[in-house]
Amino acid sequence: MQNKITLPILTSGKSASTLPSLLSSAIDDWQADSARGSLADSTTSRVSFTLDSSLDSVNKLEQTAEQVAQRAGFDEDTTTHVAMAVREAAVNAVLHGNAYDPNKHVIASFEITSDALVVRVTDQGPGLDPDSIPDPLAPENILRGSGRGIFLIKAFMDEVHFRQLHPGTELTLIKHRRPAQPGN
Amino acid sequence: MSMKVQTRQVDGVTILDLSGRITLGEGSITVRDAVRDALAKGSNKILLNLGEITYIDSSGIGELVSAFTTVKNAGGELKLLNLTKKVHDLLQITKLYTVFDVKDDEASAISSFKK
Prior knowledge:
The structure holds two protein chains of two kinds.
Chain A: E1 2-10, H1 13-16, H2 19-35, E2 44-52, H3 55-71, H4 76-97, E3 105-112, E4 116-122, H5 149-156, E5 159-164, E6 169-176
Parallel strand pairs in A: 1-2
Antiparallel strand pairs in A: 2-3, 3-4, 4-6, 5-6
Helix pairs in contact in A: 2-3, 3-4, 4-5
Chain B: E1 3-10, E2 13-22, H1 26-40, E3 45-56, H2 58-73, E4 77-81, H3 85-93, E5 101-103, H4 106-111
Parallel strand pairs in B: 2-3, 3-4, 4-5
Antiparallel strand pairs in B: 1-2
Helix pairs in contact in B: 1-2
């Protein structure tokens, strides 16, 4: 069974302001599923958004990640780490991918499966080669004023995958749910 | 979501009391401007009090590093005071904890600046 909730495109200031209520609705659905015990092994709950290339979108995705991570049963520290990783992925998409281009969008999805939280953030930029990013821990880079975003994503998530879409890049961020956590 | 900064002078040290979030956009710019203002006014002993900082992202970390190098290049010193656990952990992960001079007591932080 897949309970896929796809939300409308949120690009204008007006519709973007409705994101919290739409998200709230999606989370309520998850809560109901969970209460019915229907978040079983084969169940996937997924919500997706299309956002404009703005700092506002970055903040909204961070807030969404925090709420979804809480819903997935992660503890406070892990929830903070997931929200930080998603923020960095969103910054990457908005700033480095789409370069704030008003004609380009960021697509994000949040999926709670029986064993993981899966977040996908996709931009419409020129593409990102993860191997080309300098190691921010290297002595020659340690005092650089930027270049730590992807490093933090990898530090905070269990799995990070890059997919080139020609054009665009999809980042998949995965955090495993531990067996002892509620909802399993 | 925003960031605030208040400036104090104690024994020749400029203390910037920061509160809120140092993130891409407004927060990072506020830190940059505050440090530049202090340098422009002739102060190159700067103590960033991060005790009320609730959140920092990679842009904010980068801004702290840039502030550190800017002040150092101007012949001064920039130190950090009162790290929250979140900020402390981030500086550890990014190997920056030993780059910065980190203090947890204001009085000893002030006296640690070169006279």
